[in-house]
Amino acid sequence: MTTSHHEYDYDFTPPPEAPVFSPKAEEFKDCLGYIEKIRKIAEKYGICKIIPPDDWRPPFAVDIDKIKFTPRIQRLNELEAHTRIKLNFLDQVAKFWELQGSTLKIPIVEKRALDLFTLKKYVNKFGGMAKVNSEKKWGSVAADMGYNANNVQKIGVLLKSHYERILYPLDIFEQEETAKAKAELEENKKEIEKQLKEKKKPKASLTKAEKQEEDSKAFSKELQRLQFYGAGPKLPGLPIQDKTEKTRGVKLNFEYDPLAKYMCQNCGKGDAEEKMLLCDGCDDSYHTFCLMPPLSEIPQGDWRCPKCVLAEVSKPMEAFGFEQAQKEYTLQSFGEMADQFKTDYFNMPLHLIPMGLVEREYWRILDNIDEDVMVEYGADLHTMDHGSGFPTLGSKHLAEDDIEYAKSEWNLNNLPVLGNSVLKHIDIDISGMKVPWLYVGMCFSTFCWHVEDHWTSSINYLHWGEPKTWYGIPSKYAEKAEEIMRKSASELFEYQPDLLHHIVTTMNPNVLTAHGVPVYRMDQHAGEFIITFPRSYHAGFNHGYNMAEAVNYATPDWLEIGRKCVEHYSLMRRFCVFCHDELVCKMATRPETLTLQVAAVCYKDMLRMVENERAHRAELVEGGVRNAEREAFELLPEDERQCALCKTTIFMSALTIVNGRDDQEIVCLRHFKSMDVEPINFILRYRYTMDELAILLKGLKVHAESYDDWMEKVRNALDARRDDRLEFSLLKDYYAQALEKKYPSSELLVALHTVVEEAEKCQMVAHQLSSTQGKIRTRLGTEAKYRLTVEELELFVNQLETLPAKVTGQQGVIDLLDKVTKFKQDASLLVERDKVSLEAVESMVARGEALDIYLTEVEMLRTRLDQLSWVKEVKEILDDPSEVSNDSLIGLEQRGCNLKPRPDVESGLSRLRGLRMTMDQWETRAASCLQATPKWSLEEVERLVREGENISNGLPSLEKLKDAIRKVKEWWSRAENLQKPENYPYLDTLEALVAKGRPLPIRLNPLSQLETQVAAARAWRERTARVFLKKNSVCNLLEVLSPRYDIGMERRKKKKSEEGNYRHPIFLGLSAVQLSDPQEIVNAFKQAEQAELISMKDLRDINRNARDRKQGIMLECELCLDKYPPGSTPLPRLPSGKSRPTSLREVKFLCPNCLRSRRPRLETILSLLVSLQKLTVRLPEGEALQCLTERAMAWQDRARTVLATPEISKALKKLSIHSKEDGEDGGGTDEHSADATTDSESESSLPARRSSNIDNEIVVELSKDTVQKLEDLLVEGDLLEVSLDEVSHMWRVLQATPQRRNKIYPELDSLEAELIAAREEKKQEKQRKREKLETEEGREDRERKKHKKKKKEEKRRHEEELRADAEDDCSAKNCKRPTGKQVHWVQCDKCSQWYHLFCIGLKPQQIKEDEEFYCGKCNSSGGVRKRSSGGTSGKAAITKKKTATAVDTSDMETD
Predict the structure, then answer these.
(1) Please, which residues bridge with residue 1124 across strands?
(2) Which residues pair with 438 in a beta bridge?
(3) Residue 400 — pLDDT band, cuts 50, 70, 90?
């Protein structure tokens, strides 16, 4: 009966974990080598996991769109051995009662179905039903079955009733039939023995132990009657039925008596017909009271007699296997089904289902007969049909990056055929062993307990998907695991002894562990390998949709295990996948293709095979077999070369019978003694003779023993000494041979490797030491720490002599040692001498360094050499200290302090310190001079410089003082030149000179006088600006005073120009010579005035023609005639009260472009001119003011002449009379109005009148020429930035003419309304802009504008810096930027611009003090001219003379 295992139901304990290995990239390259490395550890667990390096990620090469497969169907509760036994038992009980005419109904006890199998098992355990009843053990049975301990007595009564009703009739039936079967068995045995003696057929008589073998029927058909069927007692004598025969029962032959079938088959009587039952299967009759157990009534429905029941119940069960599904899947459709199944089963998303829950649920389902869960598994898919998941060199569209994986040893297509793999020598492609299989799994899909074919190792790679869980048993516990499975599930193995070979049965790991079989588990994730070792049982299941690939491999040491497997297969009568003997012989025929390890193992296995073959053939000879013939078994079909008894595939030899049949069966030689056939009738078929086998063995032995020869040679080479040593090249060849033939690792190989490495290093060092001889090395050559010492050189020579190999360069090292010894002697003598020359020491140092050996004598010589070199350098400096700097002096002194003390060194240090002290004292005085307040005079500084030159030209402050003196002299010369009576400089020239003089560290006497002149000029300019410029004016003073040059141009908003900047177009057009001539400036202003007048007239014509295009209320400028909408420009300030005008006719309007200044009266301007005459500095504004005054006075004279004509005088008188009559409370005359200088009054341009209504009524008639003359004069007068009464008189006269009387002017009230509307519109526009700025787009726009403004500001500053440095830049068009300690400059005597002599092609000797220089711009001929005797006259003229000057370039940058 099955061993109890209910304690494992629903309580699964996961086994311990198997080991995990993570090889490094270098280890991962050798697949079989790494597996062999970890084997000792991993084999103890049966399985292990290998995680490849992170960068090893092979692509998935299967065409997922084309692959289609049909999976297997797995019913999970049928996979577990114990659950399947229970299901089989229930089928047997149900069939028994069905044949009795009843339907089996499973009782419910404590809310669960009664386990009839377990109930029968425990009743039998306690001795059967009779004993359980007598001893009242039903409560114990209930307790053992796991029912509630507090209620076992009551449950025991229920179990008793159910047992009596359901199982007890089956017990009685089996006992009764077993007794009858025993008698019939004895009779059948006697008959069989009699027939066997008579027939004497070959292969018929076997040993007693083999008579019960199923396959022996090929030799004795009578043995068919010894087959056993069904559970319980074995019943012989039932003939094997065809599948086409009836399965309901067996018809019996009643030839002896036709009426016998109407008699009771038990008692033989035919009475009591009302109690007689007729079998519906065989028509036999039975009394109800003669049956066991007796029947109380006639059953309803069909009824079978005991013989028919026995025939049905005792039928052998069909071999269990998996069905193929009806549906064909693609990878996508299978994955969708698998994911949907798992999601529905666990009722949660896939990624939330823990692996532990899946594992526990899996074993719960397998242990429960009530759970009917069915899954599908795409197992054993041939890669030759569907393609491998790994890329191969024959793959289509193979990328360059995939070639690495196609050639990888871990590619499962390559692993079985690697050099050290035994399976490589099998010619055929065995699917699943040499050619990988694919596995497409889903949740709960299972691979049951099994070992690999021929007990080989296997490797499984999970390409992608959810994990697999593996369980493994170490190989040393394989037999015990098989024994436990056979005992625990004996009912299954009784009908199917090779059950484990079919891989359809699994068993809970906890059951095996409880019986002392260690089980280990491992979770395999995508991208990981699982390794199983020979004869290691393994099983497992999938957690979800995934795809894996697996293949077998066999290392050399497998051959011994493989032969044991074949012997095991013969006992189990299992067919072999390939012939082991054929594999060994094939390897022996080509020993040169084998590795040393494979050859050695193959030799041992073949030797054993040949010895067995020799013994078997000797038995045949002794037994009398005389016939033999050669047979090429490898050419026969597989089914014709299998042993008829043990099913082993034959290759070496076989026995057959002499009967002339072509389909003769053959047997192994080892079955000879057990066969009852005359020896003379046997024929021996053999593949090789014993001599041929001996030759094959010898070839293997020679190849295997080549390793021994190699070891002997290496051992002798390593033991050799002195002259007996071999050349290093021979040792390298021995080592290369070991690597090439892959000799196994040993102490000798390690020693050889060590010697080769050591000799390689020694030879390299010897070559380096020999190659350095005769070469000159500098003091910056090889560092001392990388050089050999003398002691190390001596040890190295000794090492070369004791090395087991002769290396090249050894003699050179010995010669080097001799040279070193001789140098040490010579160097010691030289060091001991008190006086020695620098050249002698240098020569000896060079000689020592050339040896490239670390020598203490060289260090001593180098120290002495440093002392001599330092003393020599000090002597040179003290002899001529003119060019020494303080830093070099400090460095030299520091070097002296670091030297080893000697008298000459100490003396040099003392003298150096004295020189340095003198230099420091001078530097202190120079520093105080540069920072002195008050500053030193020029004479004092020159005296200090002379003292420094006497000390050394390398003093840091000496050059600064020299440069300061040069700049002071240049400044003083220029200042004196500007102060001459004939020179009259501009303010900016004087300001630049003052700015350059202030930072100089020497006192400048003229500086204060120049600063006074600059301050006076600036004060005058500021006063004039206050008189002319309006508040926040965009024009500077020079622009206001000068004629306009931008009339009619597009007006751009510009910043207020800096005061003193006279880069005005009038001045820009003048050369330096013209600027020095006042008449040229006057002429330039005259031309500008004419251009201004012409431009204004043109603009008036343009605006007059465009007057009608503008609609609505507009303001018209009296000067430019341009029109402006209200709000775009300010209105003149109007008086309030009664004198407030009502119409724009009474107001003279000038636009802001025409009215640029306050327009002061002429008297104010004259006072400014008086102050200007007192200045000694030229101002562009002053010259512009003079021109403006002259222009205004000239215009005033012309205007008075015109106004004095009778016609205009009459008009003025007429206007003036009415004005006086109507205005007693007048606020002033035109003269008072014209004298106004405030912004409001000036901008209003409103003539002061007592009553505007009177002028509106007066009309002045003037001729057309007079009107035109007045208008022309008025235009010219309005251009003047001066207030003149004549302008007001002319305007009033023109306003009274009929032409202007008829002109329509806007009323001021309506104009103010327009202004208010325009003001509101501007306010709303500002509000809209403010709201826009608050939005994201507005903020971005604001940031963009700020950035743009910042860039403009940076550009402006850069330009200002360039302008500031312009005077220090060379004015040549293509300046070549000469560099050097001194750069020579020259200044043009006309334009005062500076040039590099180098840039204009001159040399310093060509420039003399008494000659003038004119640049190419000022004189077309250029060059140097003789100074004329007469100077340049004119107050504005500036004459400048500069001789060629040598300037330090570094100082030019600071000027």
Answers:
(1) 1115
(2) 381, 549
(3) confident
Which pLDDT score, from 0 to 100, does residue 709 have?
Answer: 77
Contact 657, 664 (CB under 8 A): yes
CA distance 844 to 821: 14
Residue 579 burial (10 A CB sphere; 0-12, 13-18, 19+) = buried
Alpha-carbon gap, residue 969 to 1000, rounded angstroms:
11
> What would the pLDDT profile of 198-251 be if each residue is shown by its tens digit?
654 444 334 434 433 444 333 333 333 333 333 333 333 333 334 334 333 344
In sequence order, the β-bridge partners of residue 655 are 667, 684
Q: Which pLDDT score, from 0 to 100, does residue 775 have?
A: 43
Pairing type for strands 285-287 and 68-69 reads unpaired
Specify the higher pLDDT residue, 458 or 707. 458
Helix (H) or strand (E) holding 1387: strand 1383-1387
Q: Alpha-carbon distance 181 to 174, whole Å? A: 10
pLDDT tens readout for residues 526-565: 999 999 999 999 999 999 999 999 999 998 889 899 999 9
Which DSSP string corresponds to 67-87?
-EE-PEEEEHHHHBHHHHHHH
Residue 324 belongs to what H/E stretch?
Answer: strand 323-324
C-alpha 882/C-alpha 869 separation (Å) is 21
Name the nearest CA neighbour of 655 among 682, 677, 681. Answer: 682
Q: Is 1092 within 8 Å of 1044 (Cβ atoms)?
A: yes
φ, ψ (nearest 5 deg) of residue 1195: -65, -40
* CA-to-CA separations, 1026 to 1164, 1192, 1297, in angstroms, rounded: 12, 20, 38
The amino acid occupying position 535 is R
Across 781-788, average pLDDT: 60
CA 489, 492, 497, 502 torsion-angle sign: negative
The DSSP secondary-structure symbol of 166 reads I
Least confident interval from 437-441, 769-773, 852-856 = 769-773
Contacts of 1380 (CB under 8 A, 6+ apart): 1449
Cα 296 to the chain's mean position, in Å? 88
CA angle 998, 999, 1004 (to 5 degrees): 50
Other C-beta atoms closer than 10 Å to the C-beta of 185 total: 16
Q: What does the H/E/C string look like for 454-521? A: HHCEEEEEEEEECCEEEEECCHHHHHHHHHHHHHHCHHHHHHCCCHHHHCCCECCHHHHHHCCCCCEE
For the cut 70, the answer to whether the pLDDT of residue 1225 exceeds it is no
What pLDDT shows up at residue 48?
96
pLDDT at res. 156: 83
Upper half-sphere CA count for residue 1438 (Cβ side, 13 Å)? 26
What is the residue-averaged pLDDT of the chain?
77
Among the listed residues 596, 598, 590, 580, the one whose alpha carbon sits nearest the alpha carbon of residue 668: 580
Q: Give mean pLDDT, residues 1347-1376.
A: 71
Beta bridge partners of 381: 438
Q: CA 1210, CA 1206: separation in Å to the nearest integer?
A: 6
Q: How confident is the model at residue 401 (pLDDT cuts 50, 70, 90)?
A: confident
Does pLDDT of 46 surpass 90?
A: yes
- 1135 within 8 A of 1227, measured Cβ to Cβ: yes
With residue 118 as reference, give the H or E element that holds it. helix 116-125
Q: Is the pLDDT of residue 1403 over 80?
A: no
d(CA 851, CA 491): 91
The structure tokens listed for 1103 are 């605006």
Q: Is 1310 strand, coil or helix?
A: helix
Whether the bond into 956 is cis, omega within 30 of 0: no
Is-contact 50 482, C-beta < 8 A?
A: no
Residue linked to tokens 């043995």: 223
